[in-house]
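Invent a record, attention on tokens:
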Amino acid sequence: MRWGVITFPGSCDDQDALYAIKHALGEEAVPLWHKDRDLQQVDCVLLPGGFSYGDYLRCGAMARFSPVMDSVVRFAGTGGFVLAICNGFQIACEAGLLPGALIRNRGLRFICADVRVRIEQTDTPFTNQCTRARC
């Protein structure tokens, strides 16, 4: 599989993602710059975390206007795989790739806690080795 990892201004996890894809997964990974429109024939786009645009609430509202995001939205619309991590998830939401909106938490402060994740679908390339779990 050929992965494309997008770098936005302020990103720092993009290099970690490229390294992990190449060395842990043994897959091909290419860096993609936020101002480029060419996805270089990737099979999966990774929107990494790591303080893009300063990691402020709604950083994705700025990132979604990057030229590369037009290509990512088209890519996803044709069935292309997009994986979003940390504030890459915020970017995916703001770009309309996911339903809903992100809001501030009740206490308006950072929370670091383990959370339980429930697998909803097991027929995706990312979850096909998991079993559907109930909370």
In short: Helices lie at 13-23, 59-63, 67-77, 87-94. Residues 45 and 82 are 5 Å apart (CA to CA).
